[in-house]
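Quick review question:
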C-alpha cells in the first residue's frame, strides 16, 4: 500500500487553513507546502537522500516542522535529537546512527537548492523517523517508526477523541519525544493546526489559552500539576491528553473537579505514542485507568506484563511471537480498560523522562566524599517519581546535599539530577553483593 504525501494533499484540499505556528510565525497549508518543498531541495543539496538519516537539533517551532516535512518529501529518515543530552551521550547517539548531517540551525534562504524530483508517495513500511529511547530494559537505542505506524496511530487517536476541522493542538512536549513529534504528523493527516512552544512555561501557556483557539493539549502529569497550582484555566479544551508516566488518580480527580476534560493515556515510543487512552467521559468512573486500546491496537496481559500488538508498533520491536513486550505491569478489567500498576525493572519515570539509575549511581559514587550510592524513584506528587540518591558517606565525611547536587548538575542532564540525597550506614545487598533497590525503596516508604 502506498500513501500520497500528506502535506501535499492538505495543501491541495485546504490551502488556506491554519497549519502550524509558533511565537513568531504562522503558516497555512499552502505556505507550509511551499516552504517544505524549498527546504527539501536545500537539504538535498547537502546530501539528504532517500533512506539517509538526517538529525534535527532545532528549537521547537515552524522551522522544525518544515524540516520534518521536507525530509519526508525526500524519503530521508528524521532523527530528532535531545538537546539536553550531555556532549558525550550525543556523540554516542550520532555514532550509532551515522546521519548524513545534523540540521542545527535554520535553513537560510541563500542555501543552494538541488534540482531533483521529490517523492509524491510513500510505502507504509518506509521509515519516517528514528526516536531514541531508554526503554524499559534500560538500554538506550533508536526505534525506527514507519509512515504506517504514524498513520494508524493518527487513525486510532481520531477514532477515540474525534477530529474537529478547527482543532488546534498546543504542543509544549519536546519534539525528540514521540509524544511531541506525533502531534506534528497526525495534525497534517487530519488537516488541523498545531501551535508549538519551545519548552514548558506556565505563563506562556496561560497567555496562549487566553488568546483562544486551542482545543487540545498533551501534557505529562508534572506539567498538569504546575498549571493547576498556578490557576491556569484549562476548561476550554475539548480534551487534555495526560501521559508520559504513572498518573496519580488524585491528580485526575482534581482535574475533573475543576472541569478539565482530562484523558489519561498509556503509550511508549515503540508503539508510536498512544496505546490506550481514557476518553474524558470515562475518566471519573474509571479512576487509575489509562483507557481502552486504540482502534487497530491489541493489548493483553501475560505474567502480569503488558503486551501490545498492531500496526502502530515499530517493526523492529516485535518479539518472535509477534507482540511488543513493554516491561510494564498491569491488568485489564471486565470492560477492557487497562490499569498500569508498575514497571518491570528499575527505570525511573520522572516528569515524563525515563531515567536509568546506574548512570546516576556512578556519578554520585564518584564524589570523593561518597563511598557507594544507590538511586531509586520515590513517589512524588509533582514528578510522579522523584530521583532519589541514597549514599553511604566515605569514612569521616559528611557531604551536604547542596554539594552533591552541584556535583551531579555538572555531569548529568538536568532531569537526571537527584531531587533528594539521603545518607545511610549501609545499602541492602544480596549475598553475592548485588544491590537490592526494591528492598531499599520499600524501607524508605515504610
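Suggested answer, residue by residue:
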Amino acid at each position: 500500500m502506498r500513501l500520497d504525501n500528506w502535506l501535499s494533499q492538505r495543501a491541495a484540499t485546504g490551502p488556506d487553513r491554519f497549519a502550524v505556528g509558533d511565537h513568531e510565525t504562522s503558516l497555512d497549508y499552502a505556505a507550509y507546502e511551499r516552504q517544505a518543498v524549498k527546504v527539501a531541495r536545500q537539504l538535498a543539496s547537502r546530501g539528504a537522500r532517500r533512506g539517509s538519516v538526517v538529525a534535527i537539533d532545532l528549537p521547537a517551532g515552524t522551522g522544525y516542522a518544515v524540516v520534518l516535512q521536507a525530509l519526508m518529501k525526500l524519503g530521508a529518515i528524521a532523527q530528532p535529537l535531545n538537546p539536553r543530552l550531555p556532549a558525550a551521550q550525543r556523540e554516542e547517539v550520532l555514532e550509532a546512527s551515522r546521519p548524513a548531517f545534523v540540521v542545527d540551525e535554520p535553513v537560510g534562504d541563500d542555501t543552494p537548492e538541488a534540482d531533483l524530483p521529490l517523492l509524491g508517495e510513500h510505502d507504509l513500511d518506509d521509515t519516517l523517523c528514528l526516536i531514541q529511547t531508554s526503554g524499559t530494559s534500560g538500554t538506550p537505542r533508536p526505534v525506527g517508526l514507519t509512515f504506517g505506524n504514524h498513520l494508524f496511530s493518527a487513525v486510532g487517536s481520531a477514532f477515540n477523541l474525534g477530529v474537529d476541522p478547527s482543532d488546534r493542538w498546543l504542543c509544549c512536549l519536546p519534539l525528540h519525544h514521540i509524544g511531541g513529534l506525533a502531534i506534528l504528523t497526525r495534525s497534517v493527516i487530519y488537516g488541523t493546526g498545531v501551535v508549538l512552544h519551545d519548552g514548558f512555561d506556565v505563563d506562556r501557556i496561560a497567555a496562549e489559552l487566553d488568546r483562544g483557539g486551542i482545543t487540545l493539549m498533551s501534557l505529562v502529569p508534572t506539567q498538569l500539576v504546575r498549571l493547576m497550582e498556578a490557576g491556569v484555566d484549562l476548561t476550554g479544551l475539548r480534551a487534555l491528553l495526560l501521559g508520559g508516566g504513572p498518573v496519580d488518580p488524585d491528580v485526575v480527580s482534581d482535574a475533573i473537579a475543576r472541569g478539565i476534560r482530562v484523558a489519561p493515556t498509556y503509550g511508549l515510543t515503540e508503539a508510536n505514542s498512544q496505546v490506550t487512552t481514557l476518553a474524558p467521559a470515562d475518566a471519573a468512573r474509571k479512576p487509575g485507568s489509562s483507557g481502552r486500546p486504540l482502534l487497530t491496537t491489541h493489548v493483553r496481559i501475560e505474567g502480569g506484563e503488558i503486551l501490545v500488538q498492531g500496526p502502530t508498533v515499530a517493526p523492529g520491536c516485535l518479539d518472535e511471537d509477534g507482540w511488543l513486550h513493554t516491561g510494564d505491569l498491569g491488568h485489564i478489567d471486565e470492560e477492557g480498560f487497562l490499569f498500569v500498576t508498575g514497571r518491570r525493572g528499575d527505570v525511573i519515570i520522572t516528569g515524563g523522562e525515563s531515567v536509568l539509575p546506574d548512570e546516576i549511581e556512578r556519578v554520585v559514587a564518584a564524589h570523593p566524599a561518597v563511598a557507594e550510592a544507590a538511586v531509586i524513584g520515590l513517589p512524588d506528587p509533582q514528578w510522579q517519581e522523584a530521583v532519589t540518591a541514597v549514599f553511604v558517606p566515605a569514612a569521616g565525611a559528611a557531604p551536604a546535599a547542596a554539594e552533591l547536587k552541584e556535583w551531579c548538575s555538572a555531569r548529568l542532564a538536568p532531569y537526571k539530577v537527584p531531587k533528594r540525597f539521603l545518607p545511610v550506614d549501609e545499602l541492602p545487598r544480596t549475598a553475592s553483593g548485588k544491590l537490592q533497590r526494591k528492598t531499599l525503596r520499600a524501607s524508605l516508604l515504610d
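Why it works: The mean pLDDT is 92. The CA atoms of residues 84 and 320 lie 35 Å apart.
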